[in-house]
Amino acid sequence: MERNDEELLLPRPEVRVVQEELSVPSDVEITVDPPSDEGDEPLKAAGGESSKAQVSLPWKILVIVYGVLVGDAIASTVITPFVPDMCRTRFGIAEEQVGMASGALIGAYSLASFASSFYLGHLADKYGRKLIVLSGLMSGALGTFLFGLSPNFALAFVSRLFAGFFNANVPVTRAVCADVTEGQARILAFAYISACFSLSRSVSSGIGGAFTNIDFEGVPVFEDNRFLFPCLVGGLLNFVSFLTVLFFLPETNKGAKSADKKKGSLREGLKVVLKDWLMSKLILASCLGSFCNGGLLVAMVLFYSLAIEHHGLGFDPLRNGIAFTAFAGAGFIFQVYAFKRVLAWLGVVKMFTVSALLLCLGSVLLPSTAFIYWILGVNTTATIIVWVALTIIVCVVIATGFMCYLSTLGAMLSNACDDTRQGLTMGLNQSSSSLFRALGPFIIGIVFSVGVALDFPFFGFWILAALYLCSFLVLVRMSPLERYRVGDKAAEVLVVKEDDEAAASMEMFVIGEDDDDELHDQYDSAFIGQKIASQSNNTHNEARRNETVKEDEKVDRT
Predict the structure, then answer these.
(1) d(CA 327, CA 333)
(2) Which of 171-185, 377-391, 520-534 has the lowest average pLDDT?
(3) Which of 234, 279, 289, 422 could form a disulfide with 175 if both were Cys (CB 3.0 to 4.6 A apart)?
């Protein structure tokens, strides 16, 4: 195949980094796909005209997926507002043990998910996504309903384990998004998943808090158990999602059965994923983020509720609800209206690193609002200043970082992994993250209690800030090839295409503006060297074919 030199060589000031050297067959066509300065408008090769192709999403499938996530998240979190009251009044647990019992019931779901998500994700790769999603919705509906019926703590704990153990809808629905999207569209699809969680967090708080106060006098079962109705509503939402998926969601993993033998065992798949250094870094950052995000939510509510004389803000439940509703609402608005623009501006890698720094900064600034009461005293002016400070810190800094952190990580992980192991990879990430998500609130709660005893309840926030900074350091220095693998549009590369068989690749070049002649010469030398190597490989292959022909002729004569 003849090459056009104008297609192969970029202008001299555009070549900056040579990543790695591999041989390329002579019948390889090399094209340049640099991104545009605008998020959804990729450019053609150097000197070409820009294309106006917009990033489009398969909304018919994604709407069903997002409905599954919202319903599933509501069912799993609807118990949060009334769990302490349920432990006191229905289970008869002593006041000094209510906190521990409530934490155990809330965390049981994540612990069960930790034990099963990676295997359910593997099954989704082998047998299809739809079956696993349906089983998760049914187990979530039954588990939530049984929780409302539980007469004691033990049965309530078992029902939460049941709901979480057979439910891997978060990783599997992410795999569905990965099946039907790629590149920038995949990143946006994953971002809207976080918006679903923000929406469900607000709705579940309303259902769990308001519906327990409904009077069902004269209605059998419900009149003696005011916690059953919100659980019934949460379970019914999951059942509606079950019917929607059953009749309207197509199977997106088309090669599940045909590729079964090629994918290997679960053990082999785990080895492939964990041996990949980039995948390991992404999963580590996800675990740190899950620990910190879970711990931050607990630290926030404990700090809000702590009395002012103990260096908290002294919020009652109503003001707590207002603060968290504003936090969730701000995150939802950012995710829906601003995420796409910020992604186009920064790229997915920079967007993640900025979100980690925002969460680090917010974790340091949030407890500092208590100093306002120290300085000004408890009065109307100080209260107004506290709420203004909370609006800036929580609704801008923390909410923005919260919405970007795990959504960008999930998209990068999906882009970097093999398409045949999307379910396994998402499940492995969900399992490990679930463990850390369960540990985060528990450990940070203990640290906060120790800080209160020492009259300095800020240690937990500082630990979270340090861990967010560690996650930033894990991914801040990514090679050009790693940036390309995670779908960062800011990393412009030479894309190698082979006519019919994807068997080889060549060096990746990151395009920049501040280059020198030496780097340009490196590019020329690298490309010439690859052409020589390619010709040498072709000569060697031709000689082997000639030898094979001669041996066959000799056998025929014999």
Answers:
(1) 10
(2) 520-534
(3) 422
Summarised one tens digit per residue, pLDDT across range 237-274 is 999 999 999 999 998 887 655 444 444 555 665 666 67
Tens digits of per-residue pLDDT, 333-359? 888 888 888 888 888 889 999 999 999
User: Residues 347, 352, 356, 359: what is their CA dihedral angle, to the nearest 10 degrees?
Assistant: 80
Assign 98 to helix, strand or coil: helix
- For the chain, the maximum distance between any two Cα atoms, rounded to a whole number of angstroms, is 107
Q: Please say whether the structural domain 55-263 has been given the CATH code 2.60.40.10.
A: no
CB contact burial 355-388 (16+ within 10 A = b; e otherwise): bbbbbbbbbbbbbebbebbeeeeeeeebeebbbe
Measured distance CA(470)–CA(487) in Å, rounded: 22
CB atoms inside a 10 Å sphere around CB 471? 27
User: By C-alpha distance, which of 391, 412, 437 is closest to 347?
Assistant: 412
H or E element: which one contains 51?
none
Per DSSP, helices labelled H in 150-252 are 153-165, 169-180, 183-210, 228-248
Q: Please say whether the beta carbons of 425 and 121 come within 8 A.
A: yes
CATH number of 265-491: 1.20.1250.20
Alpha-carbon span 413 to 290, nearest angstrom = 15
Q: Residue 78 gets which letter from DSSP? A: T
Of residues 177, 124, 256, the one with CA closest to residue 414: 177
pLDDT at 401: 92
CB 144 within 8 A of CB 235: yes
For residue 427, give both structure tokens. Answer: 């499940």
User: 319 with 304: CB under 8 angstroms?
Assistant: yes
Alpha carbon distance, N-terminus to C-terminus of the chain:
39
Compute φ and ψ for 517, nearest 5 degrees: -65, -30
- The residue with greater pLDDT, 267 or 57, is 57
Q: In the chain, where are the structural domains located? A: 5-34+492-557, 55-263, 265-491
d(CA 68, CA 66): 5
- Using DSSP, state whether 497 is helix, strand or coil: strand
User: Which amino acid, 150?
Assistant: S
Q: Is the pLDDT of residue 225 over 70?
A: yes
Helices of type H across 55-128: 59-77, 83-89, 95-127
Residue 50 DSSP symbol: B
Instruction: Work out whether the CA dihedral 277, 281, 282, 287 comes out positive or negative.
Output: positive
Q: How many helices (H) and strands (E) does the chain have?
A: 22, 4
Residue 31, H or E segment: strand 28-32
Q: Which amino acid is at 115?
A: A
| Burial track 123-153 (b if 16+ CB lie within 10 A, e otherwise) | bbbbbbbbebbbbbbbbbbbbbbbbbebeeb
Which pLDDT score is estimated for 34?
Answer: 42
Do 265-491 and 55-263 fall under one CATH topology? yes
The CA angle 35-40-41, to the nearest 5 degrees, is: 55
